[in-house]
Amino acid sequence: MDYVFMTDSNSDIPFSIVDERQIPIVFMPYVLEGTEYFADLGRDPKVSKDFYDRMRAGATPVTSLLPTPAYLDYFEPIIKDNDLLFIAFSSQLSNTMQNIYEARKELLEKYPERKFLVVDTMSISAPQTLIILKAHEMYRDGKSMEEIAEWVENNKLRAHAILTVDDLKYLKRGGRISGTAAALGTMLDLRPVLVLGKNGKIMPSEKVQGRKKALRTLVERTAEIIENPEEQEAVVIHADAIEDAERLADLIRQKVPNIKGVKIFPVGPVIGTHCGPGTVASCFFGKERAI
Question: What is the pTM of this model?
Answer without folding.
Answer: 0.95
